[in-house]
Amino acid sequence: MRILLVDDNNTNLKLLTKLVAKLDQCEAVPFAGPDAVLSALPDLDFDVAIIDYQMPVYNGVELYTEIVRFEKYANVPVIFITADTDMTTRMAALNAGAIDFLTKPVNPVEFQARVQNIVSLSRARKQLADQAEWLRREVDRAVAELRQREQEIIHRLTLAAEYKDPHTSRHTSRVAAYSEAIAVELGLPEEMCNDIRLAAPMHDVGKAAMPDTLLLKQGRLTEAEYRQMQAHAQIGGSILAQSQSSLLQLASEIAVSHHERWDGQGYPNRLAGEAIPIAGRIVCIADNFDALTTERPYKSAWSFDRTVEHIRGRAGSQFDPQCVAAFERALPKIYEIMQKDREEQALSAVAAASGF
Questions:
Q1: What pTM, to 2 d.p., does this model score?
Q2: How many CA within 13 A on the CB side of residue 331?
Q3: Hey, what domains does the chain have and what are their CATH numbers?
Q4: 246-249 contacts: CB < 8 A, separation 24 or more?
Q5: Which terminus of the chain is less hemmed in, N or C, by CB atoms within 10 Å?
């Protein structure tokens, strides 16, 4: 333990230094005046402070008040040494944060007893702080491991859904990236933006329950088939519901709400406005953008500009106007994501044609 000693009397300082040397595993850090101490801050390290009260320029209380302006010293125990028995002096020291007093002339036996007690207290406090830090690290590690397992569950469920439709994989990854970009521009907290990116790929997990004849049909669905397909939103929410995982709860929320409309004409629950979860409102735009800008069995891909105008024109009816505004701010990032995906697909096609 390092013990700061401050006394402008050289004889007293030498005595205090010798007394500290006799304490168990303690090292004296002596200073002959307040100015020298202040000049050494905040690089000075000590665990206990013993400060003479009556000194020139700064008295002990004034010096300690300057020391504790630095957060690292806020919990350091301080002992004041004073020849003054006046209660006003002692109250000033206590109000400044004094934990004990030593009276001049210092009695070596009393010094050892009092300071050893303070040193033991400081050691116990430090050990407690170390344990708290260890516990914090362990909690952080456990939370990180739990989140990693949650992400793996979502990834595995997404893979299962992709077996029915080979185009689903790239669609879900693009929707996730678009959704995160919109969430960022909407000003949502960083952690929530990240969670939306992780949960968004599950938005169509309910399609795993759809028959292949419906899911893989070439051409437009009939009215009856379309109504049957609509069930995937409720089914997806049900698959993921009741989980203890906050990430899977968010994925369930997205799955069941990403086909709702701002004007209440969506499905499955005909929610309207802010009754639709914000993550569902965001993924709704991302999903529509991707569906329109990619080729489907029943349609050609729309251009980027045509799709943007389509979404912009439905702000306030199909889409949340604030989410549309965030989507527009995110367009440079969205365009970059779209182009990168197309380049990767082109490279994959070339590699496949070459037999690699």
A1: 0.62
A2: 11
A3: 2-135 (3.40.50.2300), 163-353 (1.10.3210.10)
A4: 246/195, 247/147, 247/150, 247/151, 247/154, 247/195, 247/198, 247/199, 248/150, 248/153, 248/154, 248/199
A5: C
Q: What is the pLDDT of residues 104-129, one digit of tens each?
A: 888 888 888 888 888 888 888 777 87
Write the CB contacts of 234 (distance below 8 Å, at least 6 apart in sequence). 206, 256, 268
Active site residue 207: yes
Distance between CA atoms of residues 307 and 286, nearest Å:
11
Handedness of CA 13, 18, 20, 25 (dihedral sign): positive
DSSP 8-state assignment for residue 222: P
**Whole-number CA gyration radius for the chain:** 34
First vs last C-alpha separation in the chain: 65
CA atoms within 13 A on the CB side of 356: 6
CA 203 from chain centre, in angstroms, equals: 24
- pLDDT single digits (tens) 51-81: 888 888 788 888 888 888 888 888 888 888 8
List, edge to edge, every strand of the sheet that includes 98-103: 27-31, 2-6, 48-52, 78-82, 98-103
DSSP state for residue 296 in the 8-state scheme? B
> Going by C-beta distance under 8 Å and a sequence separation of 6 or more, which residues neighbour residue 171?
204, 290, 291, 294
Spatial separation of the C-alpha atoms in residues 232 and 239, rounded to whole Å: 10
